[in-house]
Design brief:
heterodimer, A: alpha+beta, 60s Ribosomal Protein L30, Chain: A, 7 helices, B: mainly beta, Rossmann fold, Neuraminidase, 31 strands
């Protein structure tokens, strides 16, 4: 019981944080939030006949679904583009990573149907075996952070790709730093 | 101790640096090996006219085997030349005869003689289609090794490794010299980390078809089976050389641990209860102990423990990144990979971490060392030529020879000895 209360407080805090954030960062969050209420608006329209009414309702419904789909797609794309980066052979979250994960956490709290696969990756240096472990540690760290943020563990799974799925090719520090990351795949629970 | 290590490293680097020039065969005298090779005379086989050779001729295959073996140095000669052989201390020589038989078969007679007396030490004959010639010659060369060294050679063994085919990592198998490559996996998702099951009957490897690393086994000529599906992510397989049980890493409950399981029943249990993450397990030759990597000091270091998890000791202390150890077949040394300044190199040391020898230096990344079953050779992958390829060297770092060409080839694992002669096509003789 106490637990739930605590969670509620956290959620409230998070909600407040969202309001606060969205003001600071209009381009990302606001347009995604708009289309849904807009779709509900066109209720008072002249009634013509039953057939055209049904057609109109179907059209509106389709539009609403399309808007909802676009909104979710935008959100999913946003989450999937949020890579979290790590230092060499480390799995601790940097301050920047925490900020980014907080944004992801907020989106997940709003969108209850979203489930998350967290993928941990390493750069090309080192052995395949140890890099699997390192990637797993990175993914776990992200999962722990989001769990502490209030995301249910059942909505998240973590997986390591070691050094097998680099984002950037090449043997430069630039490429290495791009590849030492955790990223997300989003699924929608039916 | 550290001082000696540094000193040895310095000596090795001083000697080695100039010698590596990204070419196919590099003879490197590391200066601290006392291993002596046996000079062996090789004379082209006498052949009846009219044979069209599709690949290498018998004496060329023997020459390659001898040079790769780490045991012999070939003294090549067009014909018997006692002066040349004695000048080069070649006390023995190999030659033979080839003739054509009905049905497109070749009859290959192979002989090992004493140079001075021309006494016959060993004679074998094989009647085979030409595509079986390499296997027959490898079998003969293993007999030569047995006769002259008193030990089993590895000319009839194989390697499993990972090859990038149309952009996807696939598991392949080839003869130990890189010839006769066969593709084992044909997936759109990557396959990796192949190891041999007992009796060389098949492989265990990792595949990503479920979007997670998972172990599979495939007996040759049979279909693939997923392994230990009760676990989430499984990798780093190591086959127990006595029982065939599989030791592996799995990430479960947010931590990577070692588990051991029976591949037939699918049952598995945690191998050791440790606080650290553990990966890259390797059995000792008699399966009494296990090497593994632990991150309990921050970076990866190599540890050893009994098969019941007892008597845990740390093996590597030099450097911050020591990983993926494997135990020499004789049991007295380990080979592993160490990272320094972002470059991977191969080292061996004794089980107490002393007597460190650096085997590769200043030649790109050198990774994934695997012992030949006779302990004389180490295969590994290196990008010293610009792309990752498989190389073989002697256990002391000498005689580095590239055995794969083109594409990208990594992560070799040497097969066990073949217990019967079915591999060698010898029953086709006579």
């Amino acid at each position: 019981m106490k637990h739930i209360a605590k969670l509620a407080i956290i959620s409230c805090a998070v909600c407040l944080a969202i309001v606060g954030c969205s003001k600071k960062e209009p381009p990302k969050t606001e347009p995604t939030a708009e289309p849904a209420p807009a779709a509900e608006a066109p209720a008072p329209q002249p009634v013509l006949n039953a057939d055209s009414l049904a057609a109109e309702q179907a059209r509106l419904e389709a539009e609403r679904l399309e808007a909802e789909r676009a909104r979710l797609e935008a959100l999913i794309n946003q989450i999937m583009s949020e890579d979290v980066y790590f230092d060499f052979d480390r799995f601790e979250l940097t301050e920047k990573a925490k900020e980014l994960l907080a944004q992801v956490g907020e989106l997940l709290i709003k969108e209850k149907r979203f489930t998350l696969t967290i993928e941990g990756h390493t750069d090309a240096r080192g052995t395949e075996d140890y890099n699997f472990t390192l990637g797993a540690k990175r993914a776990m760290k992200v999962k722990e952070f989001l769990a502490a943020y209030g995301i249910e563990n059942e909505r998240m799974e973590s997986v390591s790709y070691g050094k097998e799925a680099p984002k950037a090719q090449g043997e430069t520090e630039e490429a290495y730093s791009q590849n030492r990351r955790a990223n997300f795949r989003v699924n929608i629970k039916q | 101790m550290r001082k000696t290590v540094v000193l040895v490293t310095l000596i090795v680097s001083a000697l080695v640096t100039g010698a590596f020039a990204a070419i196919d065969t590099i003879a490197v005298d590391v200066g601290i090996s006392v291993f002596k090779t046996i000079p062996l005379g090789v004379i082209p086989f006498e052949e009846k006219k009219g044979i069209t050779w599709e690949e290498e001729k018998p004496h060329q295959i023997v020459t390659r085997d001898a040079n790769l073996s780490g045991r012999f140095d070939v003294v090549a000669s067009d014909k018997f030349n006692l002066a040349l052989f004695s000048r080069n201390h070649a006390e023995y020589y190999v030659t033979g005869k080839v003739s054509q038989k009905a049905g497109g078969l070749l009859r290959v007679e192979c002989y090992l003689y004493v140079s001075k007396s021309k006494d016959l030490l060993l004679g074998e004959s094989y009647t085979i289609p030409q595509r079986e010639l390499r296997r027959a010659m490898h079998a003969f060369f293993d007999q030569v090794t047995k006769r002259l060294c008193g030990e089993r050679g590895v000319a009839s063994t194989k390697l499993a490794y990972v090859s990038k085919i149309e952009g996807v990592k696939q598991v392949v198998v080839s003869d130990y010299d890189g010839f006769h490559r066969t593709q084992i996996t044909r997936d759109t998702s990557i396959s990796m980390m192949p190891v041999w099951t007992l009796g060389n009957k098949g492989l265990v490897y990792v595949n990503f078809k479920t979007n997670r690393p998972r172990l599979y086994t495939k007996a040759f000529g049979r279909s693939e089976q997923p392994l230990f599906t009760q676990f989430d992510q499984t990798y780093s397989p190591a086959v127990n050389p006595k029982t065939g049980e599989l030791l592996f890493s799995s990430t479960k409950d947010g931590k990577t641990d070692l588990y051991v399981g029976n591949m037939e029943s699918g049952k598995a249990r945690k191998f050791a209860y440790l606080k650290s993450n553990q990966t890259s397990p390797a059995w000792s030759p008699f399966a009494t102990e296990v090497l593994f990597t632990s991150d309990r000091g921050g970076g990866p270091q190599i540890f050893v423990m009994g098969k019941d998890g007892s008597d845990l000791r740390r093996v590597t202390f030099m450097g911050r990144y020591n990983e993926r150890a494997s135990w020499s077949p004789s049991g007295d040394r380990i080979v592993y990979t160490s990272m320094d300044n972002g470059k991977m190199n191969i080292y061996t040391c004794a089980l107490d971490g002393s007597d460190i020898m650096q085997l590769t230096n200043n030649a790109g990344n050198n990774e994934h060392p695997t012992w030949s079953p006779d302990g004389k050779l180490i295969a590994f992958s290196s990008n010293r030529s610009g792309s990752y390829q498989i190389y073989i060297m002697r256990f002391d770092g000498a005689n580095v020879t590239r055995i794969t060409q083109g594409g990208e080839n990594t992560a070799p694992t040497w097969s066990w000895f073949y217990e019967d002669n079915s591999q060698t096509t010898k029953e086709g003789a006579k």
